[in-house]
């Protein structure tokens, strides 16, 4: 990925993709204290637009605040950087990756006196869990790894180090022949996927774990909550048990990368009819209408590039 054409915004400068480099003694590389975002831009009839840009940038700055890192740019500058990167790379639809990290000035654990940096890259990225999965649903397993407890590395921050847990869970699932992992919290209740929030449909009601289960407060999760309200679907945020997943009618993941991905299997147990369920399909369609600029109610969530 380092050897390609294109531009990356790095600390206020647009630099060539191949030159966007940092030193091996970078603090974040050693200790994992950093924060990032995953954002998507979609092609709409009105041109390319970034979905919920301000919300993603706010979460990035809140993640940094939780980590006691002071990003040396304003949120407006970070928003503009993301618009500029999409433009500079001539992308019609893409995934954006803003990341803030601690520099290489010193390598003690304390980051005091070190520099804080910000970069934004963008590239084309299709369906995260596969095109087929979007229609047929994906296969998952409950991870043998526990999701972070809320008082360990902070679960409302999208931190770099939280993803070691995600990588372990995702790798285990892939090695075992599944498409993705579902993690339980430290008390054994359902938390989230390795990079997605999870939703359960049972008897026409939509359930999702409340955030005390250590799940990230997903922006797509919030979008799905709006969609459910628009569709007249009751939503309940509560503690959810592993076996509630097994006997659900439908399950799906939400996330910027994963968008709305149906789940057809958990631990080799078929969910519902073993394919994308009708409520999931409705929510998925409403989601793609919103990000595609086909729902005027949510036009304010789209920032033109
Ligand atoms: N949980 C985790 C662990 C994630 O990495 C993501 C992706 N950012 C999500 C949930 C979904 O969040 P969002 O909808 O804001 O992308």
Automatic annotation (TrEMBL):
Q: What is this protein called?
A: Branched-chain-amino-acid aminotransferase
Single GO molecular function:
branched-chain-amino-acid transaminase activity
Pathway field: Amino-acid biosynthesis; L-isoleucine biosynthesis; L-isoleucine from 2-oxobutanoate: step 4/4; Amino-acid biosynthesis; L-leucine biosynthesis; L-leucine from 3-methyl-2-oxobutanoate: step 4/4; Amino-acid biosynthesis; L-valine biosynthesis; L-valine from pyruvate: step 4/4
Tell me the protein family, please.
Answer: Belongs to the class-IV pyridoxal-phosphate-dependent aminotransferase family.
Presence of the UniProt keyword Amino-acid biosynthesis in the record: yes
Q: Tell me the cofactors it needs.
A: pyridoxal 5'-phosphate
Q: Which UniProt keywords apply?
A: Amino-acid biosynthesis, Aminotransferase, Branched-chain amino acid biosynthesis, Pyridoxal phosphate, Transferase
- What does the function comment of this entry state? Acts on leucine, isoleucine and valine.
The record's EC number reads 2.6.1.42
Q: Which domain of life is it from?
A: Bacteria
Q: Which residues cross the membrane?
A: none
Catalytic activity reads: L-valine + 2-oxoglutarate = 3-methyl-2-oxobutanoate + L-glutamate; L-leucine + 2-oxoglutarate = 4-methyl-2-oxopentanoate + L-glutamate; L-isoleucine + 2-oxoglutarate = (S)-3-methyl-2-oxopentanoate + L-glutamate
For whether the record's keyword set contains Amino-acid biosynthesis, the answer is yes
């Amino acid at each position: 990925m380092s050897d390609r054409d294109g531009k990356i915004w790095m600390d206020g400068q647009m630099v060539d993709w191949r030159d966007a480099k940092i030193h091996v003694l970078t603090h974040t590389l050693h200790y994992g204290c950093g924060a990032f975002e995953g954002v998507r831009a979609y092609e709409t009839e009105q041109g390319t637009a970034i979905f919920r840009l301000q919300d993603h940038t706010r979460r990035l700055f809140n993640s940094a605040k939780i980590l006691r890192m002071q990003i040396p740019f304003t949120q407006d500058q970070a928003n503009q950087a993301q618009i500029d990167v999409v433009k500079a790379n001539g992308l019609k639809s893409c995934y954006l990756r803003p990341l803030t990290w601690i520099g290489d000035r010193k390598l003690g654990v304390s980051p005091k006196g070190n520099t804080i940096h910000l970069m934004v890259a963008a590239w084309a990225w299709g369906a995260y869990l596969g095109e087929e999965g979007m229609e047929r649903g994906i296969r998952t397993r409950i991870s043998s790894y526990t999701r972070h407890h809320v008082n360990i590395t902070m679960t409302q921050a999208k931190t770099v180090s939280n993803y070691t847990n995600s990588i372990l869970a995702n790798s285990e699932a892939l090695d075992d022949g599944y498409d993705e992992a579902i993690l339980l919290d430290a008390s054994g209740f359902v938390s989230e996927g390795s990079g997605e929030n999870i939703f359960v449909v049972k008897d026409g009601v939509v359930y999702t774990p409340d955030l005390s289960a250590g799940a990230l407060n997903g922006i797509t999760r919030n979008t799905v909550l709006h969609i459910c309200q628009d569709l007249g679907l009751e939503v309940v945020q509560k503690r959810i048990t592993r076996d509630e997943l097994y006997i659900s009618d439908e399950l799906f993941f939400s996330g910027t990368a994963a968008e709305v991905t149906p789940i057809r299997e958990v631990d080799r147990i078929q969910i519902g009819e073993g394919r994308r369920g009708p409520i999931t399909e409705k929510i998925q369609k409403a989601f793609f209408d919103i990000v595609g600029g086909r729902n005027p109610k949510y036009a304010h969530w789209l920032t033109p590039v």
